[in-house]
Amino acid sequence: MEIKPLCRFSLRKLAPGAQEFYASSKFLKKFDLERFVSFWKNVIEAGQGIIFAAFEDGEIIGAIAGMIYPEPYSEGLSVQEFFWFVRPGHRGFAGLRLYDAFETWSREKGASNIRMVHLLDSMPEKLQRAYLRLGFVAVETLYSKELA
Fold first, then answer.
1. At what angle do helices 15-23 and 33-45 cross, to 10 degrees?
2. CB under 8 Å to 136, separation ≥6 — which residues?
3. Strand, helix or coil at 24?
4. For 14-145, where are the E strands, in sequence order?
5. 123 pLDDT more than 80
6. pLDDT at residue 94 in the model
7. For residues 144 and 27, is the Cβ–Cβ distance under 8 A?
8. Which domains, ranges and CATH numbers included, belong to the chain?
9. What is the Cα–Cα distance from 49 to 45, expressed in whole angstroms?
10. Which of 59, 71, 79, 93 has its CA 20 to 30 A from that of 140?
């Protein structure tokens, strides 16, 4: 298995995993590949974010992405994870290797913290245990309301 950052030209290769991720949650809407590519292309080119992918036999089996930004109310930089998905059958070691690359990047960028999320209908207990083992503490709960 190989972990490496994706360049803007490789973003479309994430489509199968992204569609699988979106289909796995009732909270996520239809995945829009063009919007995804446009957004992450701009973020990567601006040096404000990264996507790491895990490859096995040339196929992407998982990815993690996030953005770095200045703290709006205090000193320092924060990194916010936007997605972390590993295809079933590859979870565990691949996911931890992705996270390790993400944390290393965050430290190299000078971030003072990383903020991770998880969907309540996507292995919440398992991810909670993983986050706690990685040294995270629960900080807040996010609520969302659909507007017509």
1. 120
2. 114, 116
3. coil
4. 49-56, 59-70, 77-86, 113-115
5. no
6. 93
7. yes
8. 2-133 (3.40.630.30)
9. 8
10. 93
